[in-house]
Design brief:
Blueprint lengths: L14 H15 L12 H17 L5 H29 L3 H6 L16 E5 L6 E5 L7 E8 L10 E6 L3 E4 L7 E10 L2 E2 L6 E4 L2
Antiparallel strand pairs: 1-2, 2-5, 3-4, 3-6, 6-7, 6-8
Helix pairs in contact: 1-2, 2-3
């Protein structure tokens, strides 16, 4: 049987969700007898999340300096919580309930594929992005969608960018310093998969 591990899925969350997730982990680890001496102090973790939240709010004015600070704070906070996740995994010893008590998600035994993972990278030119999804077995094509600014209230708010036969795509002509969300679904002989969780990208 596969040993259960702490998932690092929080790295892929959009920043607003990531902040909420990190605050929940801090709350769950506080006074948790299973995890008495975290490798990162919870005070340092809280300070890092506070900085991330402040820079996230400041970045909404679109300035390059604020966006650069947001990226730096996100990377620093992600690294702290990777360290905390490794500590929780070490102390939990594969015990699902212990991992969950720390606020992290836990790996499951292998299951059939549900959603494609998606990475949104800087493109070769200013105002462009590269979209790279995890290939889905037997997928004939992929549907790419985008929205600018904020997540829509319903499905009608998404703009379909097009279809590709490969699990990657490239977009250009996007507004620099604007926030975009992207998602992808695969078309297979068994039907179309669910769209993956939206991935946020500040275009540079």
């Amino acid at each position: 049987m596969k040993r259960l591990k702490v998932l690092l899925d929080f790295i892929k969350l959009i920043i607003a969700e990531k902040i909420s997730f990190y605050r929940n982990v801090i709350a769950k680890l506080t006074d948790n007898a299973t995890f008495p001496t975290p490798d990162v102090s919870l005070a340092d973790a809280k300070t890092s999340v506070d900085k991330l939240e402040a820079s996230y709010i400041a970045s909404k004015d679109g300035s390059h300096t604020a966006i650069a600070m947001l990226h730096a704070n996100e990377a620093a906070t992600d690294e702290l919580f990777r360290t905390l996740a490794a500590y929780v995994e070490r102390m939990a010893g594969g015990d699902e309930s212990k991992i969950l008590s720390a606020g992290f998600h836990v790996s499951k035994q292998p299951t059939s594929f549900q959603k494609p993972d998606l990475a949104v990278l800087d493109g070769p030119n200013s105002g462009s992005v590269k979209l790279v999804a995890k290939a889905v077995d037997k997928a004939g094509s992929y549907i790419w969608q985008m929205v600018k600014g904020t997540l829509p209230a319903d499905e009608k708010g998404w703009i379909t960018l097009g279809y590709t036969t490969q699990a990657n795509n490239e977009m250009d002509g996007l507004e620099v310093a604007a926030i975009y969300y992207f998602r992808v679904a695969a078309i297979t002989p068994d039907g179309t998969t669910d769209f993956c969780s939206p991935v946020m990208k500040v275009v540079v």
